[in-house]
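Re: beginner question about structure tokens

> Can someone show what the tokenized structure looks like for a real chain? I only ever see the sequence side.

Sure, here's an example I had lying around. Input first:
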Amino acid sequence: MIQYTLKCTDGHRFDSWFQSADAYDKLAGAGMVSCAICGSSKVEKAIMTPRVRPARTTSAPEAPQQGALSEPAGAAEQALAELKRKIEETSDYVGKDFVREARAMHDGDAPERSIYGEAKPEDARALIEDGVPVTPLPFLPNRKTN
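And the corresponding structure tokens:
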């Protein structure tokens, strides 16, 4: 396996894993590699810092988060990253219980607080139709587990 830092013609940078250098060349040549941010298929390898493995006697470094993107490049990406940071700091992640929690707060059965989580599109639509004030987030939440 090989990891490349890639960038699209719009300047978005992201990391991706490939089975080999030849596999990357083959997929990129067929237009099957696309930007993780905007979907553009005009992607090329970016300049990367080589990874040096520590000696075997030291503990292994923590593996990077799968699918993690590089630092936000433009103003819009920075604003989105800041929005995500603020929501995660000031709200409770309720995961798959989002619909139940949002409805309970709306009905007065639970104390109001800022929450975020996951909902199926049809369940989110039902909340909106029932007047529950919810909005989709423009990012995927970090799944918090205990």
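Each token stands for a local structural state, so reading them left to right follows the chain. The CA atoms of residues 29 and 138 lie 31 Å apart.
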